[in-house]
Batch of 2 targets.
Target 1
Amino acid sequence: MFDHRDLARLQAQSLKMQGWIRQQTYSPDLEKSLRRFSSWEVAELIFKVNQSTLRGRLAADPSLPQGLVEPEGRQRWYSLDEINELRRRLKVNRKSLMPMRPAGARALRAAIANFKGGAGKSTVALHFAHAAALDGYRVLAVDFDPQATLSHSMGLSDVAEEYTVWGIMARDLIQETERTNAVPRGAESGTALPHRELPNAITDMGLADLRPADFIKPTCWPTIDLIPSCANAAFVEFASAQYRHLNPEWSFFAAVDRYLDAIPAEAYDFILFDCPPAIGYQSMNAVFAADMLYIPSGPGYWEYDSTTSFIGQLSEALEDLNRIQNVPAGTVTLPKRFRDVRFLLTRFEPNNALHRAMYTAFQKVFGDRVCTNQIEMTRAVEQSGRFLSSIYEIDYRDMTRETWRRARLTFDGAYEEFRDNAVSVWSELEAAA
Ligand SMILES: Nc1ncnc2c1ncn2[C@@H]1O[C@H](COP(=O)(O)OP(=O)(O)O)[C@@H](O)[C@H]1O
Ligand SMILES: [Mg+2]
């Protein structure tokens, strides 16, 4: 027979192992660090110019960052900061190397969501974040999943639950309750919202004093920040139900949307949400704050099935929001509208007839909502999963160059399509801003 104490003992054993795995996979000081990128990568894969062109430009201007030369090699190796300085200072064929971004618009927000665990959500979020950073964009990633895969992959493992999406939601509950309590009552305002008291257990947590920036953590990528999650945040779903009961007028689903609105518009270019494998308070916040909905799905029949039921249930959950009573006027806009919705096949094997048939089926059913580029199944990422790294973080000298290149190409293709989709709706945000 086993009771909670046995489970606690098993967990304690497992925590010891976790510590050991982290020691093996991170650099000696237990911190994840970002490698340098070779002149080959900078020229051909990042700036998309000839290696000789880049070499010539660097030779002509010694004030440009010159990278580090490896001990027995000819390549120079550049940090991401150096790459970004080159990007700002160089023009090739009179063209800027800076990425396209509508001036004045706020960051574009994309939720990567599906029901199924293992659909590839966290892998897609991690690779899009890294690809966008190498493309010159500033990224904020938000981990909505208490399994915290994205947070661990980005090197954040010791996170207090106040600084997760749960903290943002509880802070919003306090602020929104104060706000509606302050609305004038009676005939002249036309509202009759009851006064709501929150228990001290919530108001005394000090969350109301936190500023938006307090939730944002730097990562080892200088242009990627993260709002992390942690296993302790798993109680959010339970707590949120309780909070709604305390203040039924609280538009719980708009907490993160309001939070992000308070971040300066030009602080980031992309805000990417990694969603939990369920429809609940956290994923509704992600979806409600998103301009784009990106739905990754495996290429099997069951995954197609589960993706179908995901959009059905999401549709119902979004429709339900319209029925919430007494939300104070002007605080949220309903119904929720996305500027774009896309399906992205992951773990795709081009030589697998079933996978090809499933892609055709996805296209028949979802038409041009299906991404043209699938993300292929790759051994490089299976391995990198264990090492908590993306294909962009893995040094190509650590594996067969062809395996690395192929894996990188498949993620590049999916990212570039994502970026182009994003850029085409971004200007609409510009107009709205
Ligand atoms: N393109 C891919 N090729 C190989 N393995 C992949 C690929 N995408 C995801 N995986 C693996 O599948 C597993 C689940 O992926 P993950 O992104 O964590 O899914 P989710 O976040 O939807 O639960 C992980 O072990 C990951 O390494
Ligand atoms: Mg995940």
Note: The CA atoms of residues 128 and 409 lie 13 Å apart.
Target 2
Amino acid sequence: MSGQALKHVDSHSAIHEAALNEARELNDIMSKLLRSNQKDKAMEVALVAVEHWETRTLRHADAEEEGLYKELVEESPELRDDILSLTRDHDMMRFLVKEVKEMLEKDGFIKEVLEKFHTLVHIDAFHNIEEERILPHY
Ligand SMILES: [Fe+2]
Ligand SMILES: [Fe+2]
């Protein structure tokens, strides 16, 4: 999606909401499977969740850094610090997804995996609020 399309707060926040809701649902499924000790199924859902974070939120983040963020700073240089913070949030989410993948490969589905998926949801929820705050409200 182009920087221009992401600039509209309504459509942009709808993208955030959809991705975050799906991530929350996947977390719910994983915690139920963990509680009923169905680790193989939890592992399958974890792989789906990794793909979800990579193809939705992290790809969205890449697109923002390549387009939207550059445009916003060009138009409003005072947003520079906000954009730096938002980019740092993206980096934290990239780091967590990488850690989850390594953990799944090394240890399979353990409860720390689910903790990291919960952390991702929290960081993303805060990130979205902060990002929507600085988008132009036409
Ligand atoms: Fe966004
Ligand atoms: Fe973002």
Note: Residues 61, 64, 86, 90, 127, 131 surround fe (ii) ion (ligand 2) (CB under 6 Å).
